[in-house]
Amino acid sequence: MLSLRDTLSIPFLALTPKPHLKNHLFHTKNPTPYPRLPLFCKKDFLSCNLKLVNGVRFDGPIIDANELEDGDLVVETCITHTLPPALTLEHGLQSIKEAVDALKLNPPCSSSGVLRFQIAVPPSAKALNWFCSQPESSAVFPLFFLSKELNRSTCKSLYLNTARGVFGIGAAVSFTNSSSVPGELSSIKRCLSNDSIPMSTYGFLDINFNTELSSVKLEAGSFYLFIPLIELDEHEDISILAATLAWSDSCLCTFEQAIHSYESALDQVSSHFSPTTERCHFKCIRSAIRKLNVVEDGAVQMVYMNALSMGGRDFGAYPMELRGAASFNQFCFKFTPTIGVACNMLDNASEMTYSVPDRANINAVWALLIVEECSRLGLTYFCVAPGSRSSPLALAASAHPLVTCISCFDERSLAFHAIGYARGSQKAAVIITTSGTAVSNLLPAVVEASQDFVPLLVLSADRPPELQDCGANQSINQVNHFGSFVRFFFSLPPPTDEIPARMVLTTLDSAVHRATSSPIGPVHINCPFREPLDDSPKIWKSSCLEGLDTWMSNAEPFTKYILVQHSYLCNNNTHGQMEEVLEKIQGVNKGLLLIGAICTEDEMWAVLLLAKNLQWPVVVDILSGLRLRRLLSSFLEVEENIFFVDYLDHALLSDSVRDWVQFDVIVQIGSRITSKRISQMLEKCFPCSYILVDNHPCRHDPSHFVTHRIQSSAIEFANILLKARIPHRSSKWCGYLQALNMMVGQEILFQVSAEHSLSEPHIAHVISEALSSESALFIGNSMVIRDADMYGCNWKSDNHSIADMMLKTELPCKWVSVAGNRGASGIDGLLSTAIGFAVGCNKRVLCVVGDISFLHDTNGLAILKQRMLRKPMTILVINNGGGAIFSLLPIADITEPRVLNQYFYTSHNISIHKLCEAHGVKHLEVKTKMELHEALFSSQQGETDCVIEVESSIDANATFHSDIRKFACQAADHAFSILSKLSLPESMSQGCFHCKIHSMSYSLYRIPLCAPPTSSLSDSDRTRFYREGFILSLTLEDGSIGYGEVAPLEICHENLLDVEEQLRFLFHVLQGATINYFLPTLKSSFSSWIWKNLGIPACSLFPSVRCGLEMAILNAIAVSQGMTLLNILHPQGAKEGEKSERLPSVRICGLINSSGTPEEVACIANALVEEGFTAIKIKVARRADPVEDAAVIQEVRKKVGCHIELRVDANRNWTYEEAIQFGCLVKDCNLQYIEEPVQHEDDIIRYCEESGLPVALDETIDNCPENPLNKLVKYSHPRIVAVVIKPTVIGGFEKAAMFARWAHRRGKMAIISAAFESGLALSTYILFSCYVEMQNADTCKLMNNKLAPSVAHGLGTYRWLEEDVTADLLGIGPNPCTGFIEASVADATHLLHKFQMNNNVVHRMFTAEEVLRYQITLDSNDFSCSINVQEIGQRNDRDCISSWFSRN
User: Fold this and answer.
1) Which residues form the Mandelate racemase/muconate lactonizing enzyme C-terminal domain (predicted)?
2) Does 1059 or 1077 have the greater pLDDT score?
């Protein structure tokens, strides 16, 4: 039996045994009959005139084609085994080999079958190179490469940048058909994969391939399709390596023969490919393709389709699916050693070398040799600046069939464009310039390339020696012009036939070798030319070409540089100093993995695998590509596999955190780190073991604390560590760091989202929304890259990509390619670099730069307009009118504004719109968050380049940055204060938790009310009124008990029956669940916990259920920790309160239902005032005419006086016109606010502006989504003065806290309001109201704002309670000192800690329920799977099961 590692997704219907699966066994521990439904019906399929030829092999019993009736369709399943992701392609081959070897030891007993082994490998393009590496004497066919490029499939594009595609060898399953066999009826089978990644078939339509005769001919109605033995299928974000085994004894292909075929293919491909670490693998492509002996035919197209599509309805001579197959027009295919066809793969570049003797003059000869050798070395992108002296080089480059040329009048922009191309393609670009200052203009780009290890070849034309140093026009000393910034310099002599021409070739070969060898960087070849500079004929001796015959007859470089090194794959044991490094890492106590700038996708892949293996905290720089990572759609709990600490920079603003953070081993991969605070933290950790890994040998250690410098790629380093046994240590310290990161991150998210204006941190936060797996980001310098590093966020794609399906829980996230010029970190040339990056990486690029950077390189717009061989790009310009970064530096505090504006900000009023208009580039201007979102979306969907200009302000930007830092520091201090008070074990084996839940029970209560609730219209027929709900009891493993109340309201579309169904569900899933110790932080911790620990989306719980659950958990944690609820919510504030003379209390607002005459209502209000209420809320909009309501309010105000806060609540019962009428009549009544005056929330702002009255939100926030801050942006209007928050209606304390913080941040009141709950909920609300007031005080102190008087909270519903769920008295009454009605925090705390149920109001208790647990098991000859089932409730029908499935 073949045991699969991955879980099979088997629908219940598939559990019914089928006649053709007689050898399969199905059984359950408690058998349950399932309906017998056929999977396929014969009438569903029409006749197909197809023929099975040559071993079509599948996993089920093969049915003889002669036994099939016309139109039958046989469907079989391919068993797919998905292996863990491999570090490299080589490792992937080895993993598949080991899996097949294990299969050989325990072969399947079935006489026929299809088995597929697949594995995720690094995503960089390797298929073409692998194909080209196969020997001319290949013994395995077919052999092919298929490019997936659809838009510009030309031979030239093949060499311009990476070409993703498919490499395949051998045929495990083949499908052929010939229309020359008329009238023969047969069938074709479909291959179904049990995995979510379907198998693919490749081949040709209208081609008849006779495998016996090894002949190929065009024939309408024929096709040849097959599934390769081994294939590498490259996607945007992942590559899939697969091997397929197919056998059938009836088709004369046994399992042993299938193994032999596979091994032949594996041996060949394993022995012929370039190592992953080889940078210049593209050099072999051109020469290899020319040796293949294939025919170029542009009319032939190759098809590619899901194997499921093989078969189906009749469509002429074909199944309809064949006609709908995707076709590709760039491929190379070898049927046999002598038969092959190619499309858009072969070039006529050989004609260039053959025509060397025919060149008009020696200048043209040398120029041709230079350009041709560059193309053979893989350098096919030429950036040509205009000039006369460089004419021979420019003419040769423009005429070469494989060379792509781009030009610009500005050499500086052109050079930076070349850098961008090299960054994106990992290949050097060639720059051609004329002599003089044209060469000098390249210096900034050469410096950047040198500092950041970017390959670059500069070909500078020059005057000959006789014109040097004699005053000749446009002549300067160009020898060693760039000094130490180039890796290699050589000045060629002027072209002459007296020097062997091969000297030119060896010079090029040497220069390019130096440019692409560590340390990678720019090289410079100076090329003097005498006249004639054009193609004017001038006699030259062909003897200078001696020794070039072989070179001219092939397509390989003249000199091949070969680096001989011991392969790291064979290095099973590390030696020497690496053993010391491993000892440091293995003995780690507090380790940190720090990821700096990473250039290649394969290194990013290696870093992810390493991070998952180490399970250390991981800090990633914006240039690593992992800061804006994409979470795979099926798995949100990325922290469980890889612990990213994204917000360490802002956490370090806290003195407590800085003093606490200490690492003993730091591994840094990639040299550059953007964050200054993190760099300072690393210095503070010294002395420690600091291990720096990078490809180059240069010293990147400005703090001078690196103890181990490893010159290696991330792949090589990860390979060594993955082989070693690194212990996994989960500690209290690591849990603290995770909690700190979460709290600071949520604070930053809140501040950025709560700010109603479009801020620069918001731009950094949302740029990931404009990115996809087919996108890349180029980030500018100065403030832009720092904001992205601090405020960028990961994101989740709603689309299920191949990566989602393949990686599953192995690697739960993917990177986004990010580039920037951080070599010298200048602001020059950024736009041009971004455009070159778009060409090189072949992705849609989003470029984000500041306005000064944009203006510094406006000539880059001339390059942008050319739009050569690249996808559309979006340029986001943040225009704050100057250099905003200086406003965040200390100099801004001590320098007068005039000097700052003129000499630092360099303020300007240049119109970016008009600059774009002059260059013919689309321009969009945005000023709001919504406009930015729409602009980013439309630009990413469009097919034209677009510049989006975002309006900003230096002063506002500086203020908001300061505010974020303050709040982030406060959040870090708050988190540290909470965590330091929690008693946790030092070593935790199961992650970050406080305690496990032992059990849960609930009771249904029914308490009488003394009057009808004001939330509903009174029923004159009723004399008694009740409030019903549930009391939750949550018991922790340490015996601590916390209580919560679930009180649904029918007006909120909840009822007791539905709510109890959810409680029964929670009763089972809560048992054994772990409670995270940072749940009391209320920073999205509950939402995350509900999903990760209970396996349900937080939004799926009824609001009242979530409120009661949060209440019970918070109270249980408080009891467990021996603290009050207020202590765990706000430990600092509670501590200050304990030091004060009296414990805090909460003001209460009285509540009146306005039925009765104006005089009667006024008397009731006055009675409340005499009782001690300082605030009163009156329900309105319940009378026939708003005039009557206005009369009530006027009378009440007259009766109670002006010192009483008067609020009214319309509950959205008025039309806009009625609300306006009421407002006009009460405008002199000094209302504190009117709550929800209009029926439609879209009219609220209009009402504020027209009526001039203060307004409060209530029902509006009840309908907010899970993350409501984006919706609340439009309610920042100053006339909206308050937010009324009912925790049981909006869904708990976490959301309530967020609404309160938003209100305080916007200078509004946050009113906590009850919904006629019992004393249990009211006591909790009292403490929560006190917490909200403390939060407001913290905010005012932080913002240097005057603290307003505390507000009266809407807890006056206690007066409706005729009886309560507890016998203890609720601590609400007159304050002995002031006489005002207030709620005592001490009394509320006592009630919660000593809570005892009043059994008189309990109608029913739920403490246990029978659960039937069983397992459904599916066994067959080749695989097995099981489904764990937990069944609750009674069965109404033995054929139907009411069940829910565990997450096992």
Assistant:
1) 1158-1254
2) 1059
